[in-house]
Amino acid sequence: MTLVHERTSQFLEGGRQERRQIVTPEGVPITVSLADHGARVTAFVIDLFIWLLLTLAIYIPIFSVVGYTGGNRIAVSIALFIGFIVRNMYFVYFELAWRGATPGKRLVGLRVIDRSGGPLQPSAVIARNLTREVEAFIPFGILMTWGKTAQGFVDWEQLSIALWLLFFSALPLINRDRMRGGDLIAGTMLISLPKRALLSDLVEKTAKFIFTEQQLRAYGAFELQVLEELLRRPDSADSTRVLNEVCEKICRKIEWATPVPPNDTAMFLREFYTAERAFLEREQLYGKAREDKFSKPKPLVDPNSD
Amino acid sequence: MTPSVPQIDLPIPHTSIAGKPELVLKSSQFRKGREEGWLELERLVAVVERQGVRSLTLDELQRLPILYRAALSSLSVARTIALDRNLLLYLENLALRAFLAVYGPRVSALTGLREFFRRDLPHAVRTARWHILIAALALLVGTLAGLMLTLQDEAWFSAFVPSGLSGARGPASTRADLLNKEIFAPWPGAVEAFGVFANVLFSHNSLIGIMTFGLGLAVGIPTIMLTIYQGLTLGAFIALHYNRDLTIEFLGWLSIHGATELSALIMFAAGGLVIAEKILFPGLYSRVENLAMHGRLAAQMAVGGILMLFVAAILEGGFRQLVQSTPLRFAIGFGIGALWLAYFCLSGRTERR
């Protein structure tokens, strides 16, 4: 089911946002939009940065106590160990405590959700973060040293492992739902969740202009919602110009006889919006929804049926 | 008989109040009646998002699910009667945010961990017993192959064992070398022991283990290959010691941590095989759906594997060279193996609370 307001969003916001539906336990489908790759990478980089700071905050006291040269081996061992624990616990802890968002994800406005619409299980969070080790940390770790061993020659075995693993890192690029390996295993997906505000209703109470049904039939829900978006734009010279143009077009289309005075343009459009919405909503209730100006009224019953 | 649809051109219904014509929109009326509830829900959800569910008062906590269901019903109604795009987008967004607040994970990290070790992990291991058997067989096949090949020609040893792992052991080692520098080498002290602990845990085993698991995504072929390869390495070591008449001593030396370490590798491999099976044989569901349903089981096994590697590393670094008697080593190694077996077979069989 494609909803009209989603078509309008695509038209107004340009780029196609990938949308999916999840069904809540109450049985109501909710549309979610998938997180895009840029946002995912940004969130991951922020998290990496925080992880690095955290680990450093733990390393520095350890190195200053044990000494960098003397007990070097112990210090390095402890550091490696803590790094491992911190980076795995960091993601698991925050995705559980902050309901599917690490600090990075929260800043960018991303959430981890269960793909089928159920609650996010702790085991799913553990699963999707453990595979991160394979997808990101191991190949990056190897590539950081360019596969050089301590003796200085290139370790082809390690390099080939890294390249092989990078294929798995690229999984989000090649599947429809932009899931990485961890999402596949855990049954989760990453969505973007911006906050939206409820704006005031544009419906105009007093009606100075009266439109006939024939005139209102000129448009459909798509045009209505584009008009709504234009009316919601903040006042500026540019928006006034656009409104004037739109007003002119509408007058021509519906054959509005008397010219609208320039001061009344906004008023006229709001009233037209109100009347058009009242008409279209009523039609929709009667099962005669008009998607856009091209849609033909569908006969309720097939004329060939008897 | 079909009722004909009358096409009547009616003017839009205007109700006249005080002479001025006024339009009544059902969607506007609908919004007016419910707006307050939505805004209240939005406020509660914002609090939950910022500070967690615990920061709500008892009253608010009771209101949250009621308001959430009301918002869901508003959304369903709005979809059929309203054409206000802002309203529809707002309600979808609010319903989703409220849904995530109401159905968020509600287990604290501590309770989650306890339940995990008490029930989930042993249960996962019991469920995946056939995968464990296959992984163990793969390891066994690798070991036998490594053993046979290296027995015939010790040159195979360097092919099977990476230089980092062999630690100066190889075809050139003598019996005395192996006895004094490896099997009965003196305990090097806490500092060195810890170094071995961390090195073994992080440079090799966990890498191999997690890779064995993760590569189950590639329908399990790399998983089986890596497991067989682990067996080859093990077999090559056994052959090296067999040729120098040290088999029993070596097995004792190995068992003290090996019983745990090899089980951990088998756990990782079995986890990878669970993933592979769910991709290869999806049954009634799509491959991705099926994987989502069973992937958690696999991940639980991998977490178990990490836990076991941890224990193995402590045993290897700390205790192996402290105990210098072969029978005692066997006793410890198999004793710990038996403990693992008992844990996985017996724990968490009672009903969940």
Main features:
heterodimer; A: alpha+beta; 4 strands; elongated; B: 353 residues; mainly alpha; 2 domains; 13 helices; disordered N terminus
Please provide a written account of the structure:
The complex is a heterodimer of chains A (306) and B (353). Helices cover 57% and strands 7% of the residues of chain A. By secondary structure, chain A is an alpha+beta fold. Chain A folds into two domains: 4-192, no CATH class; 213-296, no CATH class. In chain A, strands 1-2-4-3 form a four-stranded antiparallel β-sheet. In chain A, helix 2 (37-66) packs antiparallel against helix 3 (72-97), helix 5 (122-144) crosses helix 6 and helix 11 (237-254) packs across helix 12. The two termini of chain A are 30 Å apart. Chain B folds into two domains: 25-102; 111-346, no CATH class. Chain B is built from 13 helices and two strands, in the order ββααααααααααααα. At the A-B interface, helix 1, strand 2, helix 3, helix 5 and helix 6 of A face strand 2, helix 1, helix 2, helix 3 and helix 4 of B.
